Structures are given as structure tokens and as C-alpha cells.
Amino acid sequence: MAASPKEQVQAKAFSKPRHRTESLRRQDSGGSTGPLRARTVLLWKAPILSDATVEELKRTPLYGVHLQHRGKMVPFAGYEMPVQFEGVKPEHLWTRSEAGLFDVSHMGPCFLFLKEGLGEPGGHAKIAAAIERLVPSNIAILKPGQGRLSVLLNDEGGILDDLIITRMPGIEGMLYIVVNGAVKAQDWALMEDKLSDVAMLQKADDRMLVALQGPKAEAVLVQHFPEAADLTFMRCAYLEMGDEKIMLSRSGYTGEDGYELLLPNTAFGTDMVNALLADERVKPIGLGARDSLRLEAGLCLFGHDMDASRDPIEADLGWVIQKSRRERADFPGATRILKAFTDGPAEKRVGIQPLERAPAREGTEIHVDGERVGVITSGGFGPSVDRPIAMGYVRVDLTEPGTKVDLMVRGKARAAEVCALPFVQPNYKR
Predict the structure, then answer these.
(1) Residues pairing with 148 in the sheet
(2) Which of 268, 264, 233 is nearest to 251 (CA)?
(3) Cα 282–chain centre separation
(4) Is 95 helix (H, G, I), strand (E, B) or coil?
(5) Helix or strand or coil: residue 347?
(6) Quick one: which of 347, 358, 346, 345 has its CA closest to 406?
(7) In a designed cystine with 106, which of 160, 181, 185, 399 is the match (CB 3.0 to 4.6 A)?
(8) CATH class of 1-343
(9) What CATH superfamily classification does 346-430 receive?
(10) Taking a C-beta distance cutoff of 8 angstroms, is the pair 287, 127 a contact?
(11) Residue 89 is inside which H or E element, if any?
């Protein structure tokens, strides 16, 4: 899930516990083993609601760490977040060559689980059927610990958010879901409203959610979590270390190999983050580089490259809808979306390569022969490719790579052409 913009103190050493317990103990409040029940399986206590008004900015559990590392803090998605530490370009390039640590605690991690039948055979099929009421992807076929990118849809097939849905390893009937921070309240409200007959939602955004991204991420992380080496892209492990509980996912939103860790908001979590930052291969990275990294990787940003006015076919996300779901046509907005599959959309998201050095920002009109044919939805400078890059929507007859277009930058037409995405090939571990 992505963010958009607009530390080295002496770190405390972190030592791992001597004993690692088996994944997800099946134990109720009385200490006996047996079928898991919704009222006793909560992995973490529910977050305490803040008394802050809507005008006040929240702070993630790592706010103090950001200040120690001299992060430049800005308002983002209702939080004070670091936009940069050393600078966007050096942070971007460091992540491409080493390992960058991102605070993404403003996002919306949560657990969706069955009210009845949790931990029992057939539980996954039931919880998958529930979430499939809201998304067009086949969640039922996920293997334990496997995740999938999907989209929440409104009744008309418009995109309400993109999210990662993971089948919880070790327990039937539970999903680990991460939604975007800016719209997590509305996403959670939708799930609670539409799925309350069979499922319960446990929010986990009071935890630390960090992303370690880059080609050296595995080498760094295996020193603390040996299980990291065994995961492939979009696979997840649930770990218990003493009394601490961790979700470890091999995923991210930079195009690089890497991981996301949901850590407890305790000294354990802070010590782990400080231990990672103490590694010479790791630097803290802000929202600015996170945005340029995901743009180079051709990854959408909700609210910019997709929103409720766009369906998955227009957004070039038709691949999130597996053939079995298309055949069943049982997802919100199926009529509109399947028609777009068959007939093609009126507009489609593409890569745009400016042919001059001036970057094209969001909202820049795309013209052909003086006629408006589309709009830039994300644009900026790509440090890895050393040139301006952009994404946007154009009329469907203009989507062929190499098509010449004009970008209206400050009232002047600037030459550009449609290009294939991504600008930088991903380095995921398959």
C-alpha cells in the first residue's frame, strides 16, 4: 500500500529471546487447548481511541525515532510523518542498492475473522466468501500465509481502495488485511457494515508497521528473524517471540525485494526498529522517496491513480480479477467491469515519458493536436532512471507505447510519449 509526500543516534542493542514458540498457539483464556473462539483469539487488544479532534495530527509509535534521526515532519493522512531524512534522491537510491526502513504505521492493518467456526475445518472458505462480497479477487484459493493485492469496490464497480488480503497462517477463518491509511476508517466501516453477519474486525493500527525494502533487506532481517529467508513474495508468517507477536510479510510498495513487519507497540518493537537502523546497510527513509520508488515501479496510489470514479480495467488492474470471479460475476459492479473487459474502457492508465527535463505533475493535461485526451495522475523525477516520469489516463486508442502526446506544463505544450510500465523492473523474490 503507498504513500505520497508534498536519524544516527546510538541505537540500543537488540537481543533475541532464546526460545521461539510454535506459530499461533491454540490456547483459550483458561489455558487449555481446543477450538479457537472469536472472543478469545484476539492477537492484540483493541486500540484505545484517541481523544484528539479531527484537526489534531496523530503520531505513530515511531515519532520519537524520526526526531532522533532528524526527520523532516509533515502532515500526511492525519499523522505527522517524515517526508525525508537525508533527502529524497539519496534515500531513493539507497533503497535501490541497500535497505531502507519506512514507517508505515499510519496504514490500516487489521484482522477479519469468523464469529462462529474460527479455527475449525472449512473456516477459510467461509471468511473468504465474506470478503469476496466486497472485492473481485479469488480469496478462497489462497494458501495459508499467501497474500493477494485486491481492490474494494462500490456498487458501481468504482475503486474505494486497494488492499492486501492475506490468509492467516496456522488458523482457519482469519484474514490479515492492510488498507490505506487515508481511508482506513471508511474501509473498516464498510467491512463492519457489510460483513457483520458472519465476521468481526480487529483493528491493529495501534501497532508499529514498518517496511524494510531493498536488495539487502533479507540479509539484514534474517539476523533477527531466520524465517524471513523462507518467505517468497506475498507470503506471510505469524511469529511469537516470548510474549510478543509479529506479522512478517515479504511484500512492500517500492518494486524492491523486502518485508513489512507488524510489531507490538512496546519496548520490544522500538528496540527492533533501533536494531535495524543500527545496521550500516539500513537507513530511515521518508515519504518522498517512498513515492518516487512506487512511481518508478508503476504502482498506483489511491486517491490519485485510482478512485471511486475508476474501475479496475481503466486502472490497468484487471489482473486482480481472476477468471473464476469473472465467470461467477458475483462482485460489486460486475456488469460495468465485465463490459469493460469485453469492450475495453474509454480511458486507461499508462506510463508517460516526458521527453524534456521538465516534470509533469498530477493534474497536468495530456493533449494530442490541441485536444485534451487525458490527464497525469502521478508525476515527478525518477532518480533511478535519471529523468522525469509520470503515469496517467489517456483515451484507449492512444495507449500504444510510443504514441506521441503533449503535456501542458504551465500553459506550454511539452513533448512526451506513452510508454510501458514499470519504469524500473521489480526485484521481488518469487
Answers:
(1) 165
(2) 233
(3) 21
(4) helix
(5) strand
(6) 358
(7) 181
(8) alpha beta
(9) Aminomethyltransferase beta-barrel domains (2.40.30.110)
(10) no
(11) helix 88-97
